[in-house]
Automatic annotation (TrEMBL), chains A, B:
Keyword ATP-binding among record annotations: yes
Recorded superkingdom: Bacteria
CDD domains cross-referenced by the UniProt entry: ABC_DR_subfamily_A
Keyword terms of this UniProt record: ATP-binding, Nucleotide-binding
Protein known as: ABC transporter ATP-binding protein
Pfam families: ABC_tran (PF00005)
SMART domains for this protein: AAA (SM00382)
InterPro entries: AAA+_ATPase (IPR003593), ABC_transporter-like_ATP-bd (IPR003439), P-loop_NTPase (IPR027417)
Annotated GO MF terms: ATP binding
Residue ranges of every copy of the ABC transporter domain listed in the record: 5-230
Length: 288, 288
């Protein structure tokens, strides 16, 4: 039975700088999450704490109610793919598979070897000799083939060209369907992962700003366009993230439930807008 | 008067490796180009030759018929923003502006200072101390404010979060409208630049695979879906880049002019697909 991962009241300070400010959320088993945040929002620190690479100032990460730091069995349920290169200098790609097998057991060598071919990699290549895109691909293979329940991916598409990004998205969906487990994708390419993720966490200025199902979020993202006065009347009382004028036409980007009772004037058009723009409007001004 | 830039029969070999294999194309004045290619296709080498940072094995780059390497005035019409950090260690952002002003003249300090604020940068920061995203932003500011007719951008969005990418796209359009000049965007984020570029160059396996206006290209990109037999009949004689089966429904991704004379069966649906997928289907299998 797979159990929930709980992040509870997590605080991380470096000297006097607050990096994570009382973060709490849950990860369900067998779900694909998007972790979004501007540069400097604290995403990498959060993922490092969730995989016990660094310790929080206070707060806990639990699986099934048990602190992960007190239990090696729990730690071996969590895998982090990160930008940091933790492999010894002389290690080749095949050996990184063996390392994942030794640490987590039951490594999926069949999948990994098939993906080596798909990503056009030679398993005998040393990891340190790979280009950025190749190194990312080799790490993605480990992340997709490792036997863990919670797989955290920090910038999983760094340096990949469009073809290899598409390949990764397809293989992620395929392995998830065969063996459902939890993936957390932390990336700036929001437009591309919108099709993959079920649930979205937005970190902004060291806090959780949004934590909801993608469908619920997108159902509140409306662009309302028309003559300025009509648009202003219509959006009164709604949460408007941003508005633009083009000639006489105003567009208001709303993040709210629309009141279906009210009549919509003929000249006013209502459209949905996408997750990437919602993210931008929600977090503008939030870079450190 | 602005003159055309001509790349003619460019060849670049490193020992026995062909990096560019007889490349020819023109860049028109005042146009925004997308330069697309897989990792290893030769994009960076091409841009380095076009800005005279490296020399070709054979072939030429000309402006108005004159070889750029014979004429410093012509060289000062071309600016390359690249991943390589060419600035001295101790140089701060303000000083990189002065360097661009000294080399190209008439640097747009007003724009540059406004963009420093927009990208949340401190002009007194040393370039070497910046994060990847901040360094990219500081280089983009120089590229948008420099006084050159041909501005080549190699991976201009490296490390930028979605908000700063959107800011860059908006500022590029704004400065282009105020003072039309030629930009070449070389990037893997094809989906995002589709809205910006007028003309597309695709480099694949060391050669030019595609060189056409975006509108002309997209007008030939059709996804044809329906019962397999009907789709197969319809696409006979057309160039099919890829096809997929989902249950009994086949989708063929065509890159060709459709013959409007032929009747389309009711069960067959025809939709356009986007530049990023066209690129992927055209170049799959083309990574070095």
């Amino acid at each position: 039975m797979m159990e929930q991962l709980t992040v509870k009241n997590l605080v991380k300070k470096y000297r006097h700088t607050m990096v994570l400010d009382n973060i709490s959320f849950n990860l369900e088993p067998a779900k694909i999450y998007g972790l979004l945040g501007r540069n400097g929002a604290g995403k990498t620190t959060l993922l490092n704490i969730m995989s016990s690479r660094i310790f929080p100032t206070s707060g806990e990460v639990r699986i099934g109610g048990e602190d992960i730091n007190n239990d090696d069995d729990l730690l071996s349920k969590i895998f982090l793919m990160s930008e940091a290169n933790l492999y010894p200098r002389e290690m080749n790609i095949h050996q990184t598979f063996d390392l994942a097998d030794a640490a987590y057991g039951n490594f999926n060598y069949d999948l990994a070897n098939r993906l080596l071919t798909a990503f056009e990699l030679d398993g005998k290549s040393k990891v340190t000799n790979l280009s950025t895109g190749q190194r990312t691909a080799s790490k993605l293979i480990v992340a997709l083939a490792v036997n863990a329940s919670y797989i955290l991916l920090d910038e999983p598409i760094l340096g990949l060209d469009a073809n290899h990004r598409e390949l990764f998205y397809q293989e992620l969906v395929k392995t998830y369907q065969e063996k459902p487990r939890t993936f957390v994708l932390s990336t700036h390419l929001i437009e591309e992962i919108q099709q993959l993720v079920e649930h979205v966490l937005v970190l902004d200025r060291q806090k959780i700003l949004l934590n909801d199902d993608l469908d619920t979020i997108l159902a509140k993202a409306y662009a309302i366009s028309g003559p300025a006065q009509l648009v202003d009347d219509y959006v009164t009382g709604l949460k408007v993230l941003k508005s633009e004028m083009l000639g006489n036409i105003k567009t208001a980007y709303v993040f709210d439930k629309l009141d279906d009772q009210r009549a919509i004037p003929d000249q006013v058009k209502i459209n949905h807008y996408d997750l990437q723009h919602l993210f931008i409007y929600l977090t503008d001004g939030g870079e450190k």
